C-alpha cells in the first residue's frame, strides 16, 4: 500500500531537557515513530527521522537556579543522558540534535525575522505580570494560578496541564509568582504576537474540512474544538534571558517563546543532518509526519502550521498521529514526583531486554485512550506472548531443522490443503500489517505480526513433525520448509517492532534481514541454505524481577508521602497539673522477645530504676528483639496495667512516628540513670 509521496520527513517531539526519558514518552511518541520509520526504510522509501533536545524555556531556568548551575550546564546533563538512552533502546533517529546549537539559533532567528519583515506579527505593548521581589517578568511557568476552564489551582501561565487548555498568564485566577510566591504586579512590556485569528478560516478548511477522514479522532476532535472556540493572537516572545534572542532592535532582554522555537528545531536538525534539507521541508512531494503526545497537539496542529503558512516556503504536516497518555500502575506518570519507569534504569535492570519493553509499550500503546502500564502485565506479555508464541515457534523451527537436517533447509514436496492455506495467510500478511502501519495503527499491526507467529505455532502443533519423523520423513521436509519460510518472513516483518530480536533471528537463519517487499514469499530461504545455531530470543521473566520493580515504586510512593506530609495540628491545651500526672522515666531494655502468634508485638523487660517490669509494645515490625536490648527508652510508668495477649503490660514505651509509620525510640541525648524523670 504505497502513497504517492517521494520522500518522508518524520519528526518525534523534542524531549524537554529537564529530566530523563520515561516509558510514557516512549509509548506516546518515540516507539511508534521508530516503528513507522523502520517500516518505511524496509519499504525502501526515502526517509529522514528527526529529533533533538528542547533546551529552552522557563522550566530549564528554574531548575538551573535551584541547582545553582547555568541553564547550559543543566541542559548538557540531560541532553547526553537522553541521547544515550535512545541509542541503547534502538530508536533509529537520523539525527538527534539540540536547540541550544548555533545552527538552531540561526534558523529560528531567521524564521522570526522573515515573519517580522513580512509584517506577519502584531507588535503590542501590554501590561504583563511582574515580580517586584525577583525583579523579573513572569512568563509561562514562572506564574501559577487557577485555571479558568477546569479550576486546577496549579495551572501555568501558558498551559493548564490538567485540562490541556493553552492559556495566557492574564487568564489565571489568583496568579502567584513561582519565583518568590509574591502576588505579581502589572508592568508594561512590548511583545510580538502571531495573529492566529487571521488563520482561523484557513485552519478550518485545512483541518476541519480537509483532514476529517485521515487524522486520528482524538487529534481531529481537539483541533476542531479549538477552532470552533475561536483563536486569539498569541505572543511568540518572552521577557527572559535564556533562549533565542529576538533579532530586532529594541528587543533586548527578550527571547523567542519556547514553543515558537522548538518546532523550528525539526528544521534546524534536518539542516544539520543534510545539505539537501530543503527537499525534506519545502517540496510538496515530501510527506511530513509529526509524532507527539496529546498535550502537544495545539502546538503541532495549530500554532506551528500557522507559522509555516505565514512563512510561506514550507510544507504542512500530512498527519499528526498524536497518542493519548500512558499511566503507571494507576497513576499519572510524573517527572517531578519521580513516578515513572526511567528508560536508562530499565535498560540497566533488564539488560538485553529492550525489545520486551518495546513489545509491551506497543501492544499496550495509548493510541485511542489513556492506558496503564503495570509490571504484572509486562511479565505476562513477555512470558505468555513473546516467549510462548514468537520465541517458541522460532525455537522449534530452528532446533528441529538443526536436528533433522544439520541446518540445511529441506525441500517442499506435494502440498496439502492445510499447507496451502498456511502459505496463503503468509502471503497476505505483509499487506495486512503495512495497511495498519500506514494508518498509524501500531497495536493492530503488532497483533497481526503475533498472529503470524501464532499460525506458525499452530501449524507445528497440528502437524507434529517430531512424531511424524518416525513414519513419514518426506512429509516432515515439507512441514519444516514451511515453518522456516514463515520464520524468514517474521524476521522481516518484526524488525520495525523488535529490531534487536530481528538481528538475533537473522543470525539464526544465517541471512540478513530482508526488505518488506520480500516478506510473504514461500521461497525466502533457498533449499539447501544452511541456517545457524539456535539462540534464545526471549527468556522467562521471573516474579522476583518484577517484584523488585514494584517495590521500587512503593518506595517512591512512600518517599513522596513523607515529603508531602504535614504535621497534625496541635491538640487542645491542657493544664500543667494534667501534664504532671504523667510519670515518665528513663529506663533500659533488659530483654526483648516476639509475642507468639502476633506480627507487631514485642514483650520487653525494662529496668525503670524503680523496678523491673514487663511492657508489651507494638514495635515488632520495626525492631529486631536482639538489636534493642541495652537501649535506653522513655517509659510512662503510671499507666494503668493492661493484659495484652495474656501478658500483663505495665506501662508504655514512648515512640516518635514518621508519616510512613516507621518508629524511633524517645531517648535521652546522653545516658541518664535509670529512673530519671522526664519533665
Ligand atoms: N505519559 C505520557 N504518555 C504519552 N506521551 C507522553 C507522556 N508524557 C509525555 N509524553 C509526550 O512525550 C513528548 C515529550 O515530552 P516532554 O519532554 O515535553 O515531557 P513532558 O510532557 O513535560 O513530560 P514529563 O512532565 O513527564 O517530563 C511529548 O510529545 C509528550 O506529549
Ligand atoms: Zn484546566
From TrEMBL:
The lineage of its organism: Bacteria, Pseudomonadati, Bacteroidota, Cytophagia, Cytophagales. The gene is metG. It catalyses: tRNA(Met) + L-methionine + ATP = L-methionyl-tRNA(Met) + AMP + diphosphate. PANTHER family: METHIONINE--TRNA LIGASE, METHIONINE--TRNA LIGASE, CYTOPLASMIC. Is required not only for elongation of protein synthesis but also for the initiation of all mRNA translation through initiator tRNA(fMet) aminoacylation. Coiled coil: none annotated. A motif ('KMSKS' region) lies at residues 332-336. Its cofactor is Zn(2+). Binds 1 zinc ion per subunit. It comes from the Bacteria. Zn(2+) binds at residues 147, 150, 160, 163. It is an enzyme of class 6 (ligase). ATP binds at residue 335. This is Methionine--tRNA ligase. It comes from Pontibacter ruber. Homodimer.
Amino acid at each position: 500500500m504505497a502513497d504517492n509521496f517521494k520522500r518522508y520527513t518524520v519528526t518525534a517531539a523534542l524531549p524537554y531537557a529537564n529530566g530523563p526519558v520515561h516509558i510514557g514518552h516512549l509509548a506516546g511518541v518515540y516507539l511508534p515513530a521508530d516503528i513507522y520509520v523502520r517500516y518505511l526504510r524496509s519499504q525502501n522509501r526515502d526517509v529522514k527521522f528527526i529529533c533533538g533536545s528542547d533546551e529552552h524555556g522557563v522550566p530549564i531556568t528554574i531548575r538551573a537556579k535551584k541547582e545553582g548551575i547555568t541553564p547550559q550546564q543543566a541542559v548538557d546533563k540531560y541532553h547526553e543522558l537522553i541521547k544515550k538512552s535512545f541509542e541503547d533502546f534502538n530508536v533509529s533517529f537520523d539525527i538527534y540534535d539540540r536547540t541550544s546549537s548555533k545552527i538552531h539559533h540561526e534558523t529560528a532567528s531567521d524564521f522570526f525575522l522573515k515573519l517580522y519583515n513580512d509584517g506577519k506579527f502584531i507588535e503590542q505593548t501590554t501590561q504583563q505580570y511582574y515580580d517586584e521581589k525577583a525583579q523579573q517578568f513572569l512568563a509561562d511557568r514562572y506564574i501559577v494560578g487557577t485555571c479558568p476552564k477546569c479550576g486546577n489551582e496549579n495551572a501555568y501561565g501558558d498551559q493548564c496541564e490538567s485540562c490541556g487548555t493553552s492559556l495566557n498568564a492574564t487568564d489565571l485566577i489568583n496568579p502567584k509568582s513561582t519565583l518568590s510566591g509574591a502576588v505579581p504586579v502589572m508592568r508594561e512590556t512590548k511583545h510580538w504576537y502571531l495573529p492566529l485569528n487571521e488563520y482561523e478560516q484557513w485552519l478550518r478548511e485545512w483541518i476541519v474540512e480537509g483532514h476529517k477522514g485521515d487524522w486520528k479522532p482524538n487529534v481531529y476532535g481537539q483541533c476542531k474544538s479549538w477552532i470552533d472556540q475561536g483563536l486569539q493572537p498569541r505572543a511568540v516572545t518572552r521577557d527572559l534571558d535564556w533562549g533565542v534572542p529576538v533579532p530586532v532592535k529594541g528587543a533586548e532582554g527578550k527571547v523567542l517563546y519556547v514553543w515558537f522555537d522548538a518546532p523550528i528545531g525539526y528544521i534546524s536538525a534536518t539542516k544539520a543532518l543534510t545539505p539537501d534539507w530543503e527537499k525534506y521541508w519545502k517540496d510538496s512531494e515530501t510527506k511530513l509526519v509529526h509524532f507527539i503526545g496529546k498535550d502537544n497537539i495545539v502546538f503541532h496542529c495549530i500554532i506551528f502550521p500557522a507559522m509555516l503558512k505565514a512563512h510561506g516556503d514550507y510544507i504542512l504536516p500530512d498527519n499528526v498521529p498524536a497518542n493519548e497518555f500512558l499511566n503507571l500502575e494507576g497513576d499519572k506518570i510524573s517527572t517531578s514526583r519521580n513516578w515513572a519507569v526511567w528508560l536508562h534504569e530499565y535498560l540497566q535492570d533488564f539488560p538485553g531486554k529492550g525489545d520486551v519493553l518495546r513489545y509491551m509499550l506497543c501492544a499496550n500503546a495509548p493510541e485511542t485512550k489513556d492506558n496503564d502500564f503495570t509490571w504484572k502485565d509486562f511479565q505476562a506479555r513477555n512470558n505468555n506472548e513473546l516467549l510462548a508464541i514468537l520465541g517458541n515457534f522460532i525455537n522449534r523451527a530452528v532446533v528441529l531443522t538443526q536436528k533433522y537436517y544439520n541446518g540445511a533447509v529441506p525441500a517442499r514436496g506435494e502440498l496439502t490443503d492445510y499447507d496451502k492455506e498456511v502459505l496463503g495467510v503468509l502471503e497476505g500478511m505483509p499487506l495486512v500489517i503495512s495497511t495498519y502501519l500506514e494508518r498509524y495503527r501500531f497495536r493492530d499491526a503488532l497483533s497481526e505480526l503475533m498472529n503470524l507467529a501464532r499460525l506458525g505455532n499452530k501449524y507445528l502443533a497440528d502437524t507434529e513433525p517430531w512424531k511424524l519423523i518416525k513414519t513419514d520423513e518426506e512429509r516432515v521436509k515439507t512441514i519444516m520448509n514451511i515453518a522456516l519460510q514463515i520464520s524468514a518472513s517474521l524476521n522481516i516483518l518484526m524488525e520495525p517492532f523488535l529490531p534487536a530480536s530481528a538481528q538475533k533471528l537473522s543470525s539464526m537463519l544465517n541471512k540478513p534481514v530482508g526488505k518488506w517487499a520480500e516478506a510473504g514469499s514461500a521461497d525466502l530461504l533457498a533449499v539447501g541454505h544452511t541456517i545457524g545455531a539456535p539462540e534464545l530470543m526471549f527468556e522467562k521473566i521471573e516474579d522476583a524481577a518484577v517484584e523488585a520493580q514494584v517495590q521500587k515504586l512503593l518506595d517512591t510512593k512512600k518517599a513522596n508521602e513523607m515529603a508531602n506530609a504535614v504535621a497534625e495540628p496541635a491538640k487542645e491545651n491542657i493544664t500543667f497539673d494534667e501534664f504532671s500526672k504523667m510519670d515518665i522515666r528513663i529506663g533500659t531494655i533488659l530483654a526483648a522477645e516476639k509475642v507468639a502468634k502476633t506480627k507487631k508485638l514485642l514483650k520487653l523487660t525494662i529496668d525503670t530504676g524503680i523496678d523491673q517490669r514487663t511492657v508489651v509494645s507494638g514495635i515488632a515490625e520495626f525492631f529486631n528483639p536482639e538489636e534493642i536490648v541495652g537501649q535506653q527508652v522513655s517509659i510512662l510508668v503510671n499507666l494503668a496495667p493492661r493484659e495484652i495477649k495474656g501478658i500483663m503490660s505495665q506501662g508504655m514505651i514512648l515512640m516518635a512516628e514518621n508519616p510512613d509509620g516507621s518508629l524511633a525510640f524517645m531517648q535521652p541525648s546522653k545516658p541518664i540513670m535509670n529512673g530519671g524523670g522526664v519533665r
